[in-house]
Design brief:
Layout: H1 5-30, H2 37-75, H3 80-102, H4 108-137
Helix pairs in contact: 1-2, 1-4, 3-4
C-alpha cells in the first residue's frame, strides 16, 4: 500500500513542519515570561498561526489518505494495528486542536493542551513504526 512518492513527500513534509512549528511554539511560549517576553509572545503567536495553517493542509492530506491508503489497507487486512494507532493519534490531535481553539474552560483547555502535546510528540514514532511494519509485511525491507 505504498503511497505515490509526491503524496508521501507532501504528507511527510506537512507533518515534519507541524512537529517543528509545534516544538518551536513550545519553546517560545516557555520564554514569554522572561525579560524579552513581548518578543517571544509575538514569535509564539506567529508560530501558532503557521501551525494552524499547516494543520489545515494536513487535514486535507489525511482526508485523501482514507480512500487512497487506509481503506485499501484495512480491506487487505494489512498493518491494521499501527494503522489504527495512526488514525487514533491523528483523531486525538484533531479533537484536541478543536478544543484548544474553542474551549474557554480553565479545566478543559489545559487538559486539551497536554493531550495534544503528547499525541503530537508521539506521532512521529507511531508513524515510523507504521511505515517499517508495513514495509516488512510487504516484503519491502
Amino acid at each position: 500500500m505504498r503511497l505515490d512518492p509526491r503524496f508521501r513527500a507532501a504528507l511527510y513534509g506537512a507533518f515534519a513542519l507541524l512537529l517543528a512549528t509545534g516544538a518551536l511554539w513550545l519553546a517560545a511560549d516557555a520564554r514569554k515570561d522572561t525579560a524579552d517576553g513581548e518578543t517571544w509572545q509575538a514569535v509564539a503567536a506567529n508560530l501558532l498561526m503557521i501551525h494552524g495553517g499547516l494543520a489545515m493542509v494536513a487535514l486535507m492530506l489525511i482526508g485523501a489518505l482514507v480512500p487512497l491508503h487506509t481503506r485499501r489497507g484495512w480491506r487487505a487486512r494489512r498493518n491494521r494495528v499501527t494503522g489504527s494507532l495512526m488514525a487514533t493519534a491523528n483523531g486525538i490531535l484533531i479533537v484536541t486542536a478543536f478544543g484548544l481553539y474553542y474551549f474557554g474552560s480553565d479545566v478543559l483547555r489545559p487538559w486539551a493542551s497536554a493531550v495534544h502535546l503528547y499525541a503530537g510528540l508521539s506521532l512521529p514514532l507511531i508513524a515510523l513504526v507504521h511505515v517499517v511494519t508495513g514495509r516488512r509485511s510487504a516484503g519491502g525491507g
